[in-house]
Amino acid sequence: MPKYIIALDQGTTSCRALLVDLNGNILHTTQEEFSQIFPKAGWVEHDALTIWETQSRMMTNLLSEAKVSAYQILSIGITNQRETIVVWDKQTGIPVYNAIVWQDKRTAEYAQSFRDTTNGDYIIENTGLIPDAYFSGTKLKWILDQEDNRSRNLICGTIDTWLIWKLTEGRSHFTDHTNASRTMLFNIKRLQWDQRLLDLMNIPNDVLPTVLPSMADFGYTIIDGYQIPINGVAGDQQSALFGQACFDKGMAKNTYGTGCFMLMNIGSNPIQSKNGLLTTLTCSNSDKPEYALEGSVFIAGAAIQWLRDGISIITDSKETEKIALSVEEDDVVVVPAFAGLGAPYWDMSARGAIFGLTRSADSNQIVKATLDSLAYQTCDVIKAMERDSGIQVKSLQVDGGACTNNYLMQIQSDLLDVPVERPLQVETTALGAAYLAGIQIGIWTKDHVIQNRKVDREFNPNMSNEVRALKLDRWADAVSRTRGWVKL
Fold first, then answer.
1. pLDDT (tens digit per residue) in 324-380
2. Which of 131, 244, 424, 431 is the most buried (most CB within 10 A)?
3. Which run of H or of E encompasses 455?
4. Hey, how many other C-beta atoms are within 10 angstroms of the C-beta on 296?
5. For residue 388, how many C-alpha atoms fall within 13 Å in the half-sphere facing its CB?
6. Which among 19, 142, 146, 126 has a CA at the least distance from the CA of 70?
7. What's the DSSP call for residue 101?
């Protein structure tokens, strides 16, 4: 009877479950979107119970549709949207407030207050992060500060912790190094919650989960009477780095998801960025940390979703490739700073804008310019990464849903002036979680991950230096005009 690994991939807009065989092949996938909640301008929330119900249903459907029994599952790996935070009553298991999503900006003014202070310097040096509402810590403080919450019997966690707690029926309250490193509360050098920062934000230690390496024993779930261990946990971007087999210093990947996230392995030395990047922990099975430089683009695939759901000029994201290829004019620039600007700008006051509109401009030009914006933002991050690391990126490994768009991958190669390599299996985020679980239980090694990575297509640059420089200059000008729109 064949055996399998299940990967649970809990994203910003959907929950997925994937069945992976012992050769690392994805055999079946289930997926379902869930609702986004926008109570006020700049506020983004999820119903944590809906996330759990949707994720649990996807796992049940996976087994049913693939005709696989619970006793055939060797282990579960989890990967998740990272900085989103949930707080719940540990007796009832009921969240006291909606999950506050990584895109949420309600704590922007509070986070801004740390910058240009000794506390801000301490945060950068010890957490690897820049003080920003993006990270979990200020969101957690906001929830705890609501009426009566500090007097209640509460625990918290990022989405991985919430899923582990629900899967284990309250037996396990854990997170992993990668997710903890995105809270702005975790010391990435000492690998522990930072007491100075907890005191600064008035966050009690006993609400926080225990932190383990990404490959560890996170407890077990019971399905049809069978105990199935959870052995791999990682935030989505570190999971993708692992799934892309970027194990050596200098290797880099970019994931085109709801946001766009570029990571470069920098080894055991936590470089402090001078160019607006973050230093974050990578996946491991020990307390000997390795690090990555990361550039976070807040709005990438979410901009395509906005074209569909926000202004209704497309009905399906798959249309965008054909539309972009049909457009000859190149005058419109879209800067999708809907949640401010991430790396390398870190400007919470920026807002989205469309430039270059004329009477002849149409919706197709806006679609093309929105796709282009993903490539431009990635260029900004990679150039900052090269300055910090002293390593020139010679090729870019890509993954995530939007990397299947051939137009986007070609313009990315053109703007970077390097080859872009798309793997045969683009679901490297989910595969990373499966690999973590499989390595922990001894069925795989890192060599297997390396051997299993195969290139589907390589995109090579085909743009003159003059055109490239003109486009990048125009993009930089457009970005500068979006900054400082909101007064914090």
1. 999 988 889 999 999 888 888 888 899 999 999 999 999 999 999 999 999 999 999
2. 431
3. strand 455-459
4. 28
5. 28
6. 19
7. P
488 touches 112 (CB < 8 A)? yes
Q: What's the CA gap between 362 and 332, in Å, rounded?
A: 10
CA distance 121 to 63: 49
**Residue 360: burial class (beta carbons within 10 Å; 0-12, 13-18, 19+):** exposed
What are the φ/ψ torsions at residue 415 (nearest 5 degrees)?
Answer: -75, -35
Instruction: Tell me the per-residue pLDDT of 216-270, one tens digit each, with 9 for 90 and over.
Output: 999 999 999 999 999 999 999 999 999 988 888 878 888 888 888 889 888 888 8
Q: 370-384 pLDDT, tens per residue? A: 999 999 999 999 888
CB atoms within 10 A of CB 218: 30
Pairing mode, if any, of strands 226-235 and 220-223? antiparallel
Q: Which residues contact 372 (CB under 8 A, 6 or more apart)?
A: 324, 333, 334, 411
- For residues 155-181, one letter each, b for 16 or more C-beta atoms within 10 angstroms of the residue's C-beta and e for the rest, the string is bbbbbbbbbbbbbbeeebbbbbbbbbb
**pTM of the complete model:** 0.84
Quick check: helix, strand or coil at residue 254?
Answer: strand
Q: Let me know: does 232 contact 75? Beta carbons within 8 Å.
A: yes
The answer to whether 293 and 301 are in contact (CB under 8 A) is no
C-alpha to C-alpha distance for 89 and 5, rounded to whole angstroms: 31
What burial class does residue 184 get, using C-beta atoms within 10 Å of its C-beta: 0-12 exposed, 13-18 middle, 19+ buried?
Answer: buried
Query: Do 127 and 178 touch, CB atoms closer than 8 A?
Result: no
Instruction: Report DSSP state, residue 258.
Output: S
Give me the pLDDT at residue 488, please: 64
The 3-class secondary structure across 118-158, one letter per residue, is HHHHHHHHHHCCCCCCCCHHHHHHHHHCCCCHHHCCEEEEE
Is residue 201 exposed (0-12), middle (13-18) or buried (19+ Cβ within 10 Å)? Answer: middle
- Determine contact, residues 280/294, Cβ cutoff 8 Å: yes
As a whole number of angstroms, the distance between CA 304 and CA 312 comes to 10
Q: Count the Cβ atoms, other than its own, within 10 Å of residue 93.
A: 15
Burial class (CB in 10 A: 0-12, 13-18, 19+), 255: buried
Name the 3-class secondary structure at 292.
Answer: strand
- The fold for domain 4-235 equals Nucleotidyltransferase; domain 5 (3.30.420)
**Secondary structure (3-state) at 18:** strand
